[in-house]
Specification:
Helicase, Ruva Protein, domain 3; alpha/beta; two-stranded antiparallel ribbon; 11 helices; elongated; Rossmann fold; 313 residues; 38% helix; 7-stranded mixed β-sheet
């Protein structure tokens, strides 16, 4: 459920370097890394310097103030990691994992790194499923489908926090599918290597909730995203065609097919796409309660809707 992967294979590990007898004060080492990352244009240099130090030392970031020293061997490993981060390799590729709600998911080349804002999408889904148990007819084991699952972060969080949920995760890209399979081992989440447009026809009309973080960036933004995104996140997880809406359109169609009457959908989008994505759902006439919802910093982040009930059609 919370795999901690091995260090990146091409990094020399601390136990391969002989420590010296004069360990360097950790604060000075981190300050130097902070300056290097700042000069490289890294958006969160202090956080990343501390996160890498904690990774090398094998301790929580919040415990760095009581560690005190870093040995020569650890400095060698840390310096190489900082060099790679300054080259804009994602922090999560260096540590091998990304936090998501109450879990850590394994990530690396070939899979989209889950973002903190997507936690709001997962949180809404979890709250809706839990509320259904108390506010209406009981759903003892809700049936959930996570389309474009990537690392599986959303699916795993729902399975972890909604006891009894039956969760299916769908991923088309083979590399990302392997990461999702790795993360889902032992969790009960069933991962499918399939296209979201055609997946799980055997569940048509029976699913309680569909959730997705599809590709939604307009093609014209390719030259305007950070190197961590442009050079390391897979294209299939990013680009949604000329208007960025190819992914949300696909999810609307797939959710319309999969959901039962009264079932719910939640689809993530860019912070300037809320109105457009909501219009996709409203235009079909198959949805009620279409709403644009915000992330924790108040930006439009995802659209939710309810599959029109048969008696309302």
């Amino acid at each position: 459920m919370s795999p901690i992967p091995p260090r990146t294979a091409d990094i020399v590990t601390a136990d391969q370097v002989q420590p010296d007898s004069s360990p360097t004060r950790l604060r000075l080492v981190i300050n130097d890394a902070y300056q290097r990352l700042t000069a490289a244009g890294v958006a969160s240099p202090r956080h990343d310097a501390e996160a890498l130090a904690a990774f090398v030392l094998g301790c929580p970031r919040g415990h760095l103030h009581v560690v005190g020293d870093m040995s020569s061997g650890q400095r060698t490993v840390f310096s190489e990691l900082v060099t790679r981060r300054a080259a804009r390799v994602p922090l999560q590729h260096l540590t091998g994992s990304a936090p998501f709600r109450y879990l850590e998911v394994a990530v690396g080349p070939g899979v989209f790194v889950p973002r903190p804002e997507t936690e709001s999408v997962a949180g809404w889904c979890i709250d809706a499923l839990l509320a259904a148990r108390t506010d209406g007819p009981s759903i003892p084991g809700p049936l959930v489908v996570d389309l474009c699952t990537g690392s599986g972060a959303i699916a795993l969080s729902i399975a972890h926090e909604v006891k009894g949920a039956v969760v299916h995760a769908v991923e088309r890209e083979s590399a990302a599918y392997q990461w999702a399979m790795r993360n889902a081992t032992g969790t009960g989440v069933e991962v499918h290597n399939a296209d979201a447009a055609d997946a799980l026809h055997e569940l048509d009309g029976t699913v309680d909730l569909v959730v997705a973080n599809p590709p939604y960036l307009p093609d014209a933004h390719r030259d305007h995203v950070d190197p961590e995104v442009r050079d390391h996140d897979p294209d299939a997880a990013l680009w949604g065609g000329p208007d960025g809406l190819a992914g949300p359109r696909l999810i609307e169609e797939a959710a319309r097919r999969l959901l039962r009457s009264g079932g719910l959908v939640a689809v993530e989008h860019a912070d300037d796409q809320g109105t457009a994505v909501a219009a996709l759902f409203s235009a079909s006439g198959e949805w009620s309660h279409v709403a644009v919802r915000q992330d924790l910093v108040g930006r439009d982040r995802f659209v939710t809707a309810c599959r029109v009930k048969e008696q309302d059609q």
